[in-house]
Every structure is written in C-alpha cells, then in structure tokens.
Design goal:
Elements (H helix, E strand, L loop, with lengths): L7 E8 L10 E8 L1 E12 L5 E11 L5 E8 L2 E3 L1 E4 L2 E4 L12 E11 L5 E11 L1 E12 L5 E11 L5 E8 L2 E3 L1 E4 L2 E4 L12 E11 L5 E11 L1 E12 L4 E12 L10 E3 L2 E3 L1 E4 L2 E4 L2 E2 L3
Antiparallel strand pairs: 1-2, 3-4, 4-8, 5-6, 5-9, 7-8, 9-10, 11-12, 12-16, 13-14, 13-17, 15-16, 17-18, 19-20, 20-24, 20-25, 21-22, 23-24
C-alpha cells in the first residue's frame, strides 16, 4: 500500500462458518495510526555583528505510543543549537556567523518523529535573511578658481529585508556640504564654495549608510582629490646695453593641477611686450633691441 504519515490504517478479521451448516462467527479489528510531524520557521535574523536568531514551531502527533522527536537546525549547512519548548523552538543565544554585507544567509529546520512501533515521520522548512549592501562612488570633483565646488557620483543600495533607508554625507576637507540624491546618482548642490588657494590639494569624501527593515546596516565610503595648479616666475637678470640691446632671463615653474598644464609667459619692458623663449623651467628674452 502507499504509506501516508499521520494516516490511521484499519484491519478487520472475519471468521466464516464451516461448510456442514453449523454456524459460528467471530470478528476482530485493530488500527495502526502513523505519526506526523510539522516544523515551521517563523523568524530568522542575522544581525550586523553576526549574531543569529531564529524561531518557529514543532508539532508531532499521531503514532502509537510515545513519540520521540528530534530537530536539526542549520545555517548555510552548519548545525546550530536549538531548544524546543512545548510546540515552539528557538536558536540558543550567543551563536553567530561571519557577517558579510549583501550576503543571503539560508536556514533549514529538519524534524523527525518516531513512535513506539518504530514508525517515522519527517518534515523540513527553510528560510533566508538577505543582508543589505550599499555602494558609493565619486565620479567627478572640481574646485574652480573662484572657489566654487562641483562633484557627482553614484549611490546604490540593494538587498536587505524590506524597505531600505539610505543616507549620504559628503565632506570637503572635513566640512560637510549639501548633496542631492536622484535615483542612483548624487551631486553637490550648486552655490557652495571653498576658499581657493593655488597649489592646494582639496579632498572630498562620500560616506553612505543603508538600513533595512530588520535594522541591518551596510556602509561604504569613497574619496577623491582636486589639486589646484601653481605657477612661479622669477626675473634673475635684466640688462640694457649701451647700444640698446636688452637681455633678461629667469625661471618659470608650473606644478600641480589635474592633467596636463598649459603655461604662458608675457614679458614687458616699460609696458611694451617682448618675445621670450621658455626652455624647461627657464626663460630668456629673444635677442632684441629696445631702442635705436
């Protein structure tokens, strides 16, 4: 026959009369009630410090005689201690996993019950807890000559259980600046500025945090810099000869900035521009005569 957990099977035995006509009858009946077990996982939570909590129900019925019931609870295939009280079970306190942002943890509960006849029944349940994850980038950052600042990037929060609440804090050299998040992008609000200094390296940081409905948190940070350029020019010599020839030389050094630097030099004598040649970090007037 097809065995079914929790089903009550019945048996009858009927005695027939003998063939010579004498009548005698008898009947007997009995039953065998197979056991049944049911397990549920009603809650499962992995906290930010890796602590785990879970609970559910465990109900064993039927069978013949006393039932012996066992429960095995595993998280990602590793067995954890659980305590059964009446028809409820819960993980023992103080157990933990290695917490990873954005990871989906899986829990299983496997129950088995055996009656006095040795008949068995099994049941299993499973559930998951998906921790949240957040990612922030800084794709552009610029400090203009007037001190105005501009920056933008991406902000993506995923996973977790239920709705995510995400915050973003943007700072330049440790001072917080207002930023607006639109979808998965963010940008600094217009009209914000710093005190501009030539040759200074400005640093920007973006710190993101997201929290799911269970209170699990995830964080991410990004940083970038904007190095303003600097230029230094000197006049080391200047001579006007008796015949009116002029000679001058000095140094020209441009450093910093982002990317290649384009540097120009204008030399004037008494307000009149003269041609100069720059070689490396040195410059000199082209051979000219200032006056006749």
């Amino acid at each position: 026959m097809v065995y079914e957990e929790g089903k009550s099977y019945g048996i009858t035995a009927d005695a027939r009369p003998p063939r010579d006509g004498d009548k005698a009858t008898d009947s007997a009946s009995a039953g065998d009630l197979t056991p049944s077990v049911d397990v549920t996982i009603d809650s499962f939570e992995v906290a930010n410090n890796g602590d785990v909590a879970a609970s559910g129900t465990l109900t064993a019925t039927g069978g013949n005689g006393a039932l012996t019931t066992t429960l095995v609870v595993k998280i990602d295939g590793v067995e954890y201690n659980a305590t059964v009280t009446g028809t409820s079970w819960s993980l023992d306190a103080g157990q933990s996993v290695v917490y990873e942002e954005g990871k989906s943890y899986g829990i299983t509960a496997d129950a088995e019950t055996t009656d006095a006849d040795g008949d068995k029944a099994t049941d299993s349940a499973s559930a998951g807890d998906l921790t949240p994850s957040v990612d922030v980038t800084i794709d552009s950052f610029e400090v203009a000559n007037n001190g105005d600042v501009a920056a933008s990037g991406t902000l993506t929060a995923t996973g977790g259980n239920g709705a995510l609440t995400t915050t973003l804090v943007v700072k330049i050299d440790g001072v917080e600046y207002n930023a607006t998040v639109t979808g998965t992008s963010w940008s600094l609000d217009a009209g914000q500025s710093v005190v501009y200094e030539e040759g200074k390296s400005y640093g920007i940081t973006a710190d993101a945090e997201t929290t799911d409905a269970d209170g699990d948190k995830a964080t991410d940070s990004a940083s970038a810099g904007d190095l303003t350029p600097s230029v230094d020019v000197t006049i080391d010599s200047f001579e006007v000869a008796n015949n009116g020839d002029v000679a001058a030389s000095g140094t020209l050094t441009a450093t910093g900035g982002n990317g290649a630097l384009t540097t120009t030099l204008v030399v004037k004598i008494d307000g009149v521009e003269y041609n100069a040649t720059v070689t490396g970090t040195s410059w000199s007037l082209d051979a000219v005569r200032a006056w006749s």
